[in-house]
Amino acid sequence: MTAKKQVPTKRNANTLEIMHDKNKTEDHQFAEIGLSATTLNAVTARTFSQQTMGEIDLTETISVMREKVAQVNSGNLIELEATLTAQTVSLDTIFNELARRAALNMGEHMSATESYMRLALKAQAQCARTIEVLAAMKTPPVVFAKQANISNGHQQINNSIQSSTRTHAHTGKTVNQQNELLEHQKNGEWLDTGKTTTASGIDKELATVATLNRGTNTAR
């Protein structure tokens, strides 16, 4: 007798087939798939497309969604560009249809005209935004980075009392250098530091610092 050919049974479109991973428990694997962003968005896309495309197999839907994600992860943005281009056309079509309905109600039903026109302008704005995103993907903006030249020399920021003290120390060095210059002026005459002079209130602090510097120079 001739054996009858076995007709493959059709898989239930609402059943998700999972390949068992021996390194994971069944509950863990089911939770991992159920909480996956790829799985959840595949289910959402399948639900919204049923009115247009009919019933789509759940397992194949998730498989195709994973392929799309892998394509983008590899750097291939062709399908994303195609999606934005198609959405631009759809949004432009929606704008024109809503604008047409607004024009038909104009003069008799102004409230309907206003509602249609408001929706039409929203579709127009979204269409323009989609075009901007698509243009940015095709021609990314060029970034001009200006290099900051930082001096390698000594830099000082006076933010505290200690900084102020360091500033006075540098001032003392300046006074000491000026005294050394004065010593070489006036036909080689030395500056008489032993002569008693009356220091003004402004020069008291500088005079004290200069004394400390002379002591330092003597130690040398």
What would you say about this model in short?
This protein has 220 residues and is an all-alpha fold.
Would you mind describing this structure in some detail?
With 220 residues, this protein is mainly α. It has helices spanning 26-34, 37-53, 58-73, 78-105, 110-138, 161-183, 204-219. The protein has three domains: 16-75, no CATH class; 77-141; 161-193 and 200-219, no CATH class. The protein contains seven helices and no strands.
Number of self-contained structural domains: 3
Q: What would you call the structural class?
A: mainly alpha
DSSP summary, beta strand count: 0
Major β-sheet annotation: none
**What is the residue-mean pLDDT, rounded to a whole number?**
78
Helix content: 55-70%
Strand content: under 5%
Sketch the topology as an H/E string, one letter per element: HHHHHHH
Write down the Rg.
Answer: 42 Å
User: Gap between N and C termini, in Å?
Assistant: 121 Å
Indicate the low-confidence ranges by residue numbers: 202-214
Could you state the oligomeric state of the chains shown? Answer: single chain
Count of helical segments?
A: 7
Shape: flat
